[in-house]
Automatic annotation (TrEMBL):
Gene3D superfamilies: Cytochrome C biogenesis protein. The chain crosses the membrane at residues 102-123. It comes from Actibacterium atlanticum. The keyword S-adenosyl-L-methionine does not apply. The keyword Iron applies. Residues 7-149 form the CcmH/CycL/Ccl2/NrfF N-terminal domain. Keywords: Cytochrome c-type biogenesis, Heme, Iron, Membrane, Metal-binding, Signal, Transmembrane, Transmembrane helix. CDD domains: CcmH_N. InterPro entries: C-type_cytochrome_biogenesis (IPR051263), CcmH/CycL/Ccl2/NrfF_N (IPR005616), CcmH/CycL/NrfF/Ccl2_sf (IPR038297). Residues 1-18 form the signal peptide. This is Cytochrome c-type biogenesis protein. Possible subunit of a heme lyase. One of its GO terms (cellular component) is plasma membrane.
């Protein structure tokens, strides 16, 4: 039983959030807003972790910044805009589908469709119609084959 608990604790340990008790806001509604905003912000050190899940110092600074902006009375949108203005759009785990990012969202499916189209055309071009398959060797080819085989 102890071994099972140890294994479960080791599995659950990476899932524990990195928010420290000193960072938690006293108002539960504000803390819930901070957690919701933090889920959408990327840790710039860890890359594909949210700032809530990261133990990096920069992630901690971002968590504190988000909570400061909420305490100052900013809306969720204003907090996210503030962080994006300061760190760039890369800080968003789900970048906006606008501007140059729209090209990145569209180019993947377009490239896939283009590859499928090219593959289809290639395979279709390789297929021979049934009427063009020769039945056997022509008389000239048979004579040439006999000549080669004598050597």
């Amino acid at each position: 039983m102890k071994k099972l608990l140890i294994v479960l604790a080791l599995i659950a340990a990476p899932m524990a959030q990195a928010v420290e008790p000193s960072e938690i806001l006293p108002d539960p509604a504000q803390e819930a807003r901070a957690r919701e905003i933090s889920k959408g912000l990327r840790c710039l050190v860890c890359r594909n972790e949210s700032i809530d899940d990261s133990n990096a110092d920069l992630a901690r600074d971002l968590r504190v910044l988000v909570r400061e902006r909420i305490t100052a009375g900013d809306s969720n949108k204003e907090v996210v805009e503030f962080v994006v203005d300061r760190y760039g759009e890369y800080v968003l785990l789900r970048p906006l589908a606008s501007g140059s990012n729209l090209v990145l969202y569209i180019i993947g499916p377009v490239a896939l469709l283009a590859a499928l189209g090219i593959g289809f055309i290639y395979l279709r071009g390789r297929r021979r119609p049934a009427g063009q398959v020769p039945d056997g060797l022509s008389a000239a080819e048979a004579a040439r084959l006999k000549e080669i085989m004598k050597d």
